Amino acid sequence: MRIDVLTVLPGLFDCFLREGVIGRAISSGKVDVRVHNLRDFTTDKHRVVDDVPYGGGPGMVLKPEPIFRAYEELTKEGEKPFVILTEPWGERFNQEMAKELSEKPRLLIICGRYEGVDERVKAIVDREVSIGDYVLTGGELPAMVIMDAVLRLVPGVLGNRESLEADSFSDRGLLGYPNYTRPARFRGMEVPDVLLSGHHAKIERWRKEQSLRRTLERRPEVIERLKREGLLTEEELEILRKIEEEREVGED
Ligand code: ADE
Q1: Euclidean distance between CA atoms 92 and 239, whole angstroms
Q2: CATH architecture, range 168-251
Q3: pTM exceeds cut of 0.85
Q4: Superfamily of domain 2-151
Q5: Spatial distance between the Cα atoms of 14 and 26, rounded to a whole number of angstroms
Q6: Which residue is closest in CA terms to ligand 1's atom 4?
Q7: Which residues, 6 or more positions from 191, have their beta carbon under 8 angstroms from its beta carbon?
Q8: Active-site residue list
Q9: How many Cβ atoms from other residues are within 10 Å of residue 56's Cβ?
Q10: Running DSSP on this structure, what letter comes out for residue 115?
Q11: pLDDT tens-digit map of 113-155
Q12: Which residues pair with 51 in a beta bridge?
């Protein structure tokens, strides 16, 4: 997969692209990520990328010309990229979107900024994406969040040690179960006995129950949806009935 990023702050991406899982994926050639400075696509002496908004008001707006010039330059050869614009009022990013984007051969992420981007840029944008209901100073952190979530789904990027299997959200949106490592007793806090038992079927059942409990507590709407869509197994429904019975007894 190839990702191009268009930004006014390319330096922000340095550590992100050098370290950890993403750094390794890039240095081993599994993914190709290129960060471009929007100013390199200006034609004036001062390399101006923004201007005041028509109609007045605070803040500056990213000009369309450098963005279109960058788009044309970057798409001169090779496959046409799927174009994302980061915006606080875009479509909310989630795991499903990460999965869809990870299947595209090429992405171009245009980092917006909070005051805005000239509306005519939308002519080249396939999807406007927000990473949550809060306003950041620019689209660089959102671009890194999107890249991180997308790149780890690209085959070969995660090794066995970082397996995808037990992810929160990868299993129908159910939240992950609690994890422990050594020591078995730490400052008076114990690892649950079942995890030390070596009994694989019991461990599986305990994890399933914990995952359902967490989801029911923190994201009850996910359980409702899975029930409605018939996506829970008979065993899971039975565990949920048990949890709900316990809650009723607790309330009495
Ligand atoms: N730019 C500023 N805030 C943002 C957000 N929450 N998501 C995406 N882009 C943004």
Answers
A1: 32
A2: Orthogonal Bundle (1.10)
A3: yes
A4: SPOUT methyltransferase, trefoil knot domain (3.40.1280.10)
A5: 12
A6: 88
A7: 180, 184, 185
A8: 88, 115, 152, 167
A9: 6
A10: T
A11: 878 999 999 999 999 999 999 999 999 999 999 999 999 999 9
A12: 61
